[in-house]
Amino acid sequence: MTNNFDVVALEVCNIYKNRWQIETLFKWIKQNLVIKKLWSHSENAAKINIWIAICTYLIVAYLKKSIKSDLSIYQILQILSISAFDKTPINQLRNDF
User: Is residue 77 part of a domain?
Assistant: First the structure.
């Protein structure tokens, strides 16, 4: 991009700025979302997998806020994964661990 002299310097700066935002998003996805493996290698399947992980993260973040927990989202996810089919209320699960 920097070797293309037909593009104005300000436009190159904006392109790199937008690229940096994308890199920041990818870094956040890798650090915060639990995506162990993609179930398919098609573009659509990868998008669905990422959207499901984002939705799960947001639901757990909302749950964390609604029960006013001091646990991290990762810790809440660990508790929920252990007791996925248990009918114990969330507040009691939190106290058990």
Answer: yes
* Domain that includes residue 72, residue range: 33-96
Domain count, the chain: 1
Any domain includes 25? no
DSSP code, position 80: H
pLDDT exceeds 70 at position 81:
yes
- Which are the contacts of 2, defined by CB distance < 8 A and separation ≥ 6? 12
Q: What's the rounded Cα separation, in Å, for the pair 95 and 72?
A: 14
Q: Which residue reads 């809440």 in tokens?
A: 76
pTM comes to 0.66
Show the beta-strand stretches assigned E in 19-90: none
Instruction: Report which secondary-structure segment, H or E, holds 75.
Output: helix 73-82
